[in-house]
Amino acid sequence: MHIELVIAKTATMVLGLLIAYQAFRGYRVHGSTAMLFVAIGFAIISIGAVIEGVLFDVVGWSIFLAGFVQTVVVAVGMLFVLYSLYGNASF
To answer: pTM to 2 decimals?
Structure first.
């Protein structure tokens, strides 16, 4: 395991979760459903930032399968953020 990569992935996850937290606070204060979707999306993307390494190093999956799962998780998070931007505005 490369400690530099672990530090970088952890920093990315922490930053993403901070963005998700701020978006969730915006949802609670203003009741904006779009901010809720941003919060969910960034939380999922943040998990995706570290899931490849966990699946590869800890669980023992192949790098291909771990990378595939990471890509799918990040894509799902991005879909939530995209929906917050273009989704139904009549909530």
So the answer is: 0.89
